[in-house]
Design goal:
Radius of gyration: 34 Å
Structural class: alpha+beta
Strand order of the largest sheet: 10-22-21-20-11-18-19
Strand content: 15-25%
Helix content: 40-55%
Number of strands: 22
Largest sheet: 7 strands, mixed
Number of helices: 24
Oligomer: single chain
Length: 671
Amino acid sequence: MEHDHDHGDDSDHDHHSGHSHKHHEEMFKRKFFISTALSIPVLYFSTFVSGLLGYTPPSFTGSNLIVPVFSIIIFGYGGIPFLKMAKSEFEDRQPGMMMLISLAITVAFVYSMAALFLNTQSSFFWELVTLIDIMLLGHWIEMRSVRQASGALDELAQLMPDTTERINEDGTVEEVKVSELEEGDKVLVRPGASVPADGVVVEGESDVNESMITGESKPVSKEPGDEVIGGTVNKEGSLRVEITATGEETALSGIMKMVEEAQESKSKTQLLADKAAGWLFYIALGSGAITALAWTIAVGFNVTVIERVVTVLVIACPHALGLAVPLVVAINTSLAAKNGILVRDRIAMEEARKLDTVMFDKTGTLTKGEMGVVEIETDGIEEDKALTLLASVESDSEHIIAEAIRNSAEERDLSIHDAEDFQAIKGKGVRAEVKGETLYVGGPNLAKSEGFKISDKLNQFAQNAAENAETAVYLFRDGEAVAAVGLADVIREESREAIEKLHERGIEVAMLTGDSEDVAEAVAKELNIDTFFAEVLPEDKDKKVQELQDQDKEVAMVGDGVNDAPALTRADVGIAIGSGTDVAVESADIILVQNNPLDVVKLLNLSDLSYSKMKQNLFWATGYNAFAIPLAAGVAAPIGLVLSPAVGAVIMSLSTVIVAFNAQLMKRKEI
């Protein structure tokens, strides 16, 4: 029912912006409440309602004008937006909901105005105003559930700092706007600051977190000669960077361009209700023509014939059809939200049931995106004792491995001892004194340089760890290794179950990662993933989605990094994991707040449920027509059964109630 055409006067491209959606939602809400308030006098003074409820409205000078005057105002204020929206359907030669609504309200309006001047008894004013009210309500509900901001590009832009510290020729440092930087300028990037533009390190050493651009979970160490990307975040050390690209030329701008292109190439799916409305438009016109012809042949052309035709055309626009889809969408959206699923694009929610491939980004989606101890092997010492000593030695280190070891010790509730005389051995490991004994922690290089012994058992463990793409670290005591731990990006508990359930639904699972082939293979094997793509560069992620789509697959992409944004937008359904960077969330159709891959399965269940409810509702809404149109046309007139507009309207209300009740039943379902 909602279109890819402009609503009201806004231009077409504006439709895509969140601002435009909010504007339309407010417009329909306002029009609905004002029109409904103005409808009260129309209903109160209408002869049909007063006859039905058995009261006589007061009569005074001009009281006979209340119904037509208020109806004209409502038609002008609440009905005109539908006529404007019908214009684009008319121009595209694709009649849908808007042309059907416009046909019904225009016919009812013109006939009622004519009836006023011809002084006939029947008019459709009350049907006209209730039809407009309900259509405005349907549109408002729908807009509210649809509202979608496409702030992906703003979010990307926010990764870039506004100011930076430029190093002048004389060595002084001044704060300047990033936009003033030129190629060849040198900047100082302090610990915790963002790199202002693409460049090369000329002085200093540090680790830089590039996960928001490359998806690589480990911070990347940088030294003179290494390239850095604008928008990434420096960790502990200070870096002096020479700028090589600014503005449009930076990697981040490239990603922004791709997000924009992918957003524009989004497929436009029209809702079922639109198709149904299109058919109904032709059915209504056809039925009207047949009615006019048949009655004219039977009784000659007179007011009764016109009344029949108008009844058919008004009845052909079902209130229920206007609500059939929006109500399901609204309930579906709130059900999803209760289950931690935020729907930004309802077309994607609808498409989800057709998916046959789900592609997960590895880091931060299937895995936690942080290093952790995944296995431990000891030689002459208990596991917990070994982990306690490892964590104690590393208690003062800032290194990512040290942090992983400390976290694992904390998870096991082990108490960490104080370390004294801590010393980092550059590129090899660390040493410290714990409870009076000197301990070393490090890899094979440390063992070589210090002449430590490593038993076959621990050596074998380290080899196996390397095959599984884990980093092995030893604990040395008295010149020999007593324990080793394997560290890797920790796989989420829920990932395994999510993949099993997707397989049960007959859905293929693919994985995408910037990590090396061996890391990817180890994770894919562990999780029983069907296909994986390793060492994928950020700018190529959306190409991998495209590759699968070219094989006629319906692909969902589940990711969290900025570098996933183009892929999320390119996919048939883009699903962002909520803890992900803001931009991925902005370029996704659906956001999983809980970071739980299992919610992908919930999403598919919800999609199935809402689709079946939409179909049932469309059946009720159009079924009413199949029954009411022939009666309104006077098929049963020979046996004295003629459906008056008023009775038609009552049946119409009944079908609306059924549709609303059926939509509410969704809330009872377990997802």
